[in-house]
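pinging the channel bc i need a second pair of eyes. not urgent but kinda urgent?? the chain im working w is below, pasted from the shared doc
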Amino acid sequence: MLVILLDWFYIAVVCTILGVGVLKLFNRLVGREKEDLSLMHNLAAGIVFSTVYAQYFSLFYRVSLLAQLLLLALCIFICFRCKDTLAKMITQIRSTAFSWQGILYLFLLLGVAFFTSRGVQHTDTGIYHAQAIRWIEEFGVVKGLGNMMGNYAYNSSYLCFAALFSMKFLCGVSLHTTNGLIAVSMCIYAFHRLKDFKFHTRHIADLLCVSNLFYALVIANTIMSPATDAPTMFMTIYFLIRFAEVFESEYPSYQELSLLSIGLVYVVTLKLSAGCIVLLVLSPAIILLQKKRWKEIGIYIGTGILVLLPFLLRNIILSGWLLYPFAAIDLFSFDWKIPIERVITDSDQIKVYGRCLYENNLINMPLKEWFPIWWGHQERYEQMLMAGSLLSLAGSFVLFLQKLLQKQKINWNIVLLHTTCIICAVAWFFTAPFVRYGLGFLLAYPMIYLGNCLFTNRMNLLKIGTGFCMFGVICCLVPYFDHYITDDLVFAKQNLLDMEYYVVQKDYEVFNTASYEMNGLTFYYPTDGDKAGYYGYPGASGRKDEQVEMRGDGLRDGFKVK
């Protein structure tokens, strides 16, 4: 835990300084005068910037000591340029830290650090997350790496962020603390906003904060794992909160919404399954077009492209495809390109596994046939969660219809928030309905509905019906959270006496592997299951010497299909 807390402190300081500098520069470009002193907002901006930076750096060199030194040099420059803003933030942080709130946040910090120090590794971390991070630490990005294992081509910008702050060059082992930092930051941010609940006239953003707290409970015992689902869901909900804050304000700022839209592009680079969240950009886009703010439009679009570009370039280098595994966009003919047959196979496999069918030849099974199979494989508490989301959808429709019939003023931004979450959930369901892929939306939508209901003040028949609907939604959610709260408490009790992890973090798991040679280099593959882990490096899903060959003499040259 001690090492984790030190690493968190360093990452938080670096990312906050970067966030202050980036936001100040961006505000100057678009002529925005507001100075944002929120620690979480600046930290989030710094996380976005450092992730994009790590991706660009990986295109040219390994993400290790040199990347960290250049980042520190930039931080020192920002400290000189933005010393007044940083001084104000330090004063704010100090006043909060030495208060009753500070005590609560300290307990949150220690609680998340406890789980980050000794949790359980996510299954996919053993398969490819840890190994992909090591490739980034050692080489940055390698041409055709996806030929060694398709999972390596499942590019996520988060893995570059994790590699940037793994500190292997300093600690001798690769730390995996970044998911824990994101989790504890989101929890503190949620509690910090909820303390002013009674002063808010609208509560959608407040209830979305609750969904982030609930998500932290769900993944607590796997938070030490550098899995890509966790940052995707946390950041998805965070940006939903930020959009809801602006939508619920009396005078929504189109500049604030435009800035947040860049964050939506960042979320897409974390995981393509969250891609539909970019629909929220419609709100600021319409306003900018109406106002004919062409310069600002150019700046926002240009910045969005800068955020997206390294993600696309890494996709191309890793797999030869713009988006993997999406065979519909076939633009390149590099020698390291993964064959289209395998792309289609991987794409089908994601879908059939998500539907709990587990055989690629069942990819065209009609919805009416696979849905009962999929539903039967869900745990009871997961079924209740999805029932709660459907009940929330019905309740939201009734409220919207009532406003139309009574010709009440409709906040179309809130309608867009509802619609975006619904479309995201539908896209999740019809592509790869693993619950963990869409959990952010399944948790967020009931909270959006409940928050919307709290804005209805007049007591009438509809209000009574809404109350019963709200009660039903809450009853559907309780079993889900009860299950994970119990799991977390049992895990904490069983691991409380692992004294060594109060100082250091539990290392990556070591798996049984066998080896073979290619061009005089030794490669490893799992012999028990499908996990080679961080230490089975350089690794693949199996023996690849008969299907794959190296493009040159060294690993940096990459791989291609024979």
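so The chain has three domains: 2-316, 340-369, 370-495. and The beta strands are 513-518, 521-526, 548-550, 559-561. — does that match what u expected or am i reading it wrong
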